[in-house]
Amino acid sequence: MEPKIQSKPDEELRIGVYVCHCGKNIAGSVDCADVAEYASKLPNVVLSKHNLYTCSDPGQETIKKDIKEHNLNRVVVASCTPRLHEPTFRRTCEEAGLNKYLFEMANIREHCSWVHLYEPEQATAKAKDLVHMAVARSALLEPQEETVVPVTRQTLVIGGGVAGIQAALDLADTGYKVYLVEKQPSIGGKMAQIDKTFPTMDCSICILAPKMSDVGKHPNIELLTNCEVTEVGGYIGNFQVKVQKNPRYITKDCTACGDCTKVCPVEVPNEFEVGLSGRKAIYMPFAQSVPARYIIDAKSCIGLGENTCAKCKEVCGPDAINFSDKAEEIELKVGTIIVATGLDVFDPVSLMEYGYLRFSNIITSLEFERLINAGGPTGGRLVRPSDMNVPKTVVFIQCVGSRSEKKGNPYCSNVCCMNTIKDALLIKEHWPDVKIYVFYIDIRAFGKGFEDLYRRAKEKGVIFIRGLPAEIIEDNKTKNLWLVGENTLEKKIYTVNAAMVILSVGLRPRDDSEKVQQLLRLSKTTDGFFMEAHPKLRPVDTPTGGVFLAGCAEGPKDIKDSVTQASAAAARAGILMAKGSVTVEALTPTMLSDKCMGCGLCARVCPYNAIIVDKEKKLATVIEAACAGCGTCGAECSFNAIQMRHFTDDQIFAQIDAATAKDADKKIIAFCCNWCSYAGADFAGVSRMQYPSSVRIIRTMCSGRISPKFVERAFARGAAAVLVAGCHLNDCHYIDANYQTKRRVEKLWKKMERLGLDKNRLQLAWISAAEGEKFASKIREMQRIVEGATKLEIEKTVQSLAQKKVNVVTEVAKA
Amino acid sequence: MAHKDSPKIGETKTEMLHPMHVPKDELQGNEQRPSLDKILEDLLDFEKLKYCNGCGICTGICPIAKILPEYYNPRILLHSLPLGDEKILKSPQLWLCAWCYRCYRRCPQKLNLPEIFQVVRRYAVESGYSEGFIKALEIISKNIPLPISCSYVCFHPERVIKNQQIVADAIQQAILTSSPEKSKEQPFAKSTKNVAIIGSGPAGMSAAHDLAKKGYSVTVFEALPSAGGMLRRCIPKYRLPKKLVDFDIMRIKDLGVEIKTSTPIDGTQKVKKLLEEGYDAIFVATGAQEDQNFTIQGAELNGVFHALDFLEKANTKNVELLNTVSIIGGGNVAIDSARTALKLGAKDVTILYRRSKEEIPASPWEIKEAKDKGIKIDFLVSPKKILGENGKVTKIECVKMELGEQDATGRRRPIPIQGSEFMMPTDSVIMAIGQSPNTVFLPKTVELTTQKTIVTDPFTLETSSPNIFAGGDAVLGTGTLIEAILAGKQAAFSIDHHLRGIPLDPVDIAENAFGRENNGT
Fold this sequence. Notes:
The complex is a heterodimer. Chain A is an alpha/beta fold. Chain A has four domains: 10-146, Rossmann fold; 154-331 and 514-579, FAD/NAD(P)-binding domain (3-Layer(bba) Sandwich), CATH 3.50.50; 344-508, FAD/NAD(P)-binding domain (3-Layer(bba) Sandwich); 647-815, Rossmann fold (3-Layer(aba) Sandwich), CATH 3.40.50. Chain A is 32% helix and 22% strand. Chain A has 22 helices and 36 strands. In chain A, helix 6 (162-174) runs parallel beside helix 14 and helix 18 (677-686) crosses helix 21. The longest helix of chain A is centred in the last third of the chain and has 24 residues, at 791-814. The radius of gyration of chain A is 31 Å and the shape is globular. Chain B folds into three domains: 24-177, Fumarate Reductase Iron-sulfur Protein, Chain B, domain 2, CATH 1.10.1060; 194-289 and 437-512, FAD/NAD(P)-binding domain (3-Layer(bba) Sandwich); 291-435, 3-Layer(bba) Sandwich (FAD/NAD(P)-binding domain), CATH 3.50.50. Chain B is 35% helix and 15% strand. A five-stranded parallel beta sheet of chain B has the order 3-2-1-4-16, with helices on both faces. Chain B has a five-stranded parallel beta sheet with strand order 6-14-7-8-9. The longest helix of chain B is centred in the last third of the chain and has 19 residues, at 481-499. Chains A and B meet through strand 22, strand 23 and strand 24 of A and helix 2 and helix 20 of B.
């Protein structure tokens, strides 16, 4: 497809450059006036300015005025990451009548001033290079027209915990169709298992059950319990989702009378009661289950195989049991997706020293919720497992599996302090004489009403001791537990004898979150929770357009925060659907019909099967709607027949050439994908992680775009080292395009070996958006390679690739 | 008290050793010595000092913090380091870590406290601050039974002060100045109750020391001809010269403790007889004296040793010179065996350990030192059989291992890799795969675990049989010297309460059990 808008071919280039101080953020280590002065001397630059805040209203007004007054036809802003303000400045350009694709950004904050805080000279030199690269690229930019795609007014909510329930209800009430998919046979999630909520001490299921029932009855909600999402295709506004509906073996005729359970001979541990009691193979998860239908657990039922027990079927009045129920696949078309997959609790078995499961009277905080719950296995009577008596002394241990580098998780789990305080008060409420100790490191009572609850617990005589137990020893006779540790405020060793110990276990990402991550191409933070598009300004968006986050899938949080976030996610999804359409960035490839040989290599590497090759006409064509714009095809084509819009070969070559114009032998050229590794470098900047200033980053949408000829060009220009960085394998935002990156780099390594070059100078790294430190240390590591690269070695590389270079240059010239 | 027969340690100097004089050539690289700030900065980066959340587990698990609560708290010591105060360099706290590594193994943030303290110790010595070490020795000699043995085995600063003579002099000086003649201690009231202690190792002798000081008449029964247990039998001489053990034993004898050597209590009747003979309580501190049996083909060959036998022989008489030695096991005993073998003239010493570096029970520092001395450590290797010619070991067949699931000890279980067998030529094999207690002599009323260790109440240390107490390795399995001393002191405290008819409640234990009542020797 030919570009819809063509720039006037003989138009004179008039580039305007704006260097932003960002207060002291950039100007603190970069001499912005010097950079602006340098830019003014670059070819085609007609105007170069520096100002305090380019993104401010006056800053934007200046740009608009200059476009009109000076007839600027390209604008370059050197400021923060394009991931933050590119949309702002693109809008500015558009308002002044300039096509927004003629705007270019140089990232001199995240990639320069913040990571070279103490080297002003090097930072300034690097900023100049970055501006040079941006100016060189901008000269080759073409105007583009974006396609507008419709947004299907239907939502998929994954996960039926309190966050999923809230998001589903909000959107359904707005008038959109919602598909709520839940893996378990009933919605309700972890909140349904909890006895009371903090800080108000509301009964958890009492406030949740009406919402669950609303979901079940809502005309706009299609509830898909016992279902799993297996495939997600498409893009923002137009997702195609496949859902596997697992067999329930009970039809809709079930009246929930419970006669079946009475006759079922199989008893297995009850998951809802955390194994504290049993359930039958045919069962209802819990009294308030929605849908209020029974289910047969296929793993334990003895009626499903050849030995048909079928006792339940015999007694079922409405004849609602169907042993031949099969899994079915449902296909959905939705415009937006809300991920509310929730959390798992930390399993303390791996913490040997705490003796969980070895000592009978040690339980977890989730087990305690079921023990104290009136609907639980003991009818709400707090008993210790060894003798079923009410314990005289109860000990809570905080931070089990949280805030530890060794076992569990390094982060604070956010809810355990308040949960323990609430639990302690519950015990005091029913059994005032029970002595309660809480061993903690810090009590974090930061929320509204939290401190009051903490104070109440102290009033009631709960003893808080700062210092975790170092040893727990079980008394063989009494099954009591001895705890020895240091009271760090008293600086004395304590020895406490407890009848029962409750481990306040932390929260962790779900085991199956990896699967969800791959289905939706999400990013994870180092904690393992899903990463938001921006931690402050887009806290419920994900990097994948049209996909939003709610609840603990994004990080540990309490019920109130989960509900708040769910409503926010619903609003964000609602905005998209209310508009009904969305513009898609013009990043798809253009096939140059005169060059295409119809070899089909591009079609083979396309992750979306978006290229059709007509062997007879010797021509490949792109299905615009299916293409996501990764550029893997462009990197594969050996005839230069594919031009990636906005990321053309020439534009990237121009960036490489500009970066290597001076002191190339001291530089690292890094090609980074937009979603993960470029964002990872941004994260290093935001975190002020310092690394050598020798690196020049070139952004592509996907690492799959990085053609071997880019790497060769960098080496041919005398670069000391090249880094190719992308998302982790299997985390690629374009399905599996980064496998092509891997293959290409491996091929390049072989070639370098064959040419007798040091292949170490080409590095491949998988760096996620959360791995700023990994990016920084990779550059530190590569600095040693740069320092080790001899003049001779670099000269040899330049010569070995010289032949190739001529070819490339001539081809570029031809193009 | 300097007993008139007490052996001399090294060469006694007449002048006082305060502050300890360390000659210039003892200092390592003092010219370009980095500042304390720089050292701390490195520690902060590499040891993650800053990640300490102050949970107190290190102090809660530390035996020294229990024996010397007024003098030592590893958490507070750690926290005082980033303040960069020079005072810390002069403080005795710095020298009271006994290198048991319990804190490191339990720290949720993986802080390696012993080695952090080590760096600061070296810095203190290099900066000319040695008074902390001298003060620490005084504290040790006043508060810890067997002070010289402890000073050598647990608190020895050999890793920072290389001249052994200086250390030996300092230790002797500290012990002499703290002898009872010079301190003003109240004489103790005599009790009419008698206590029998079975075993004269560190746990038994520590209990004897504390009980004698409380006025009980104490008799220690020892099967061997001389007292001291593992201190004498198996701790290598290079670590602890044996005449120093005599000095420590003498100090306890001076308190009126009777030690009956060559008097094995080797039958259930003999234990019962002790109670009948008028002993009001028995403390069983027999340790873990037996090498664990390892059934391997070729174990009967000439040149195969059990570690404890080997170490004992090396301490008492000359062992046939070995050339290539393979040691099986990864504990401190394995390292001691390896270093002893090296000292006996072995050319090539290799330790075979079946798990990885992460799981090895020997202290990290011990491993580093062993490696520095040229000892090889092969991880993830397990022997299959020992082969020989003419009844003499020639080689071992080994198999490579990989780690599988976690086992009951929380460590990953080693699994042999099929077909990875290989041969290792060797002249001698030392089996150091652990020790177990011999508890068959105890009456049936004393409950045992499946590992043959004795079951006791964790705090009173009383066994299931009334008036019989037990502690140390016989209860806990193999541990360090300082842990045995803690057990001895704990037993003495509990037996004292028991004999006075005062029940122990947790508050007593928290306040007193770990030595607060035992100030001064």
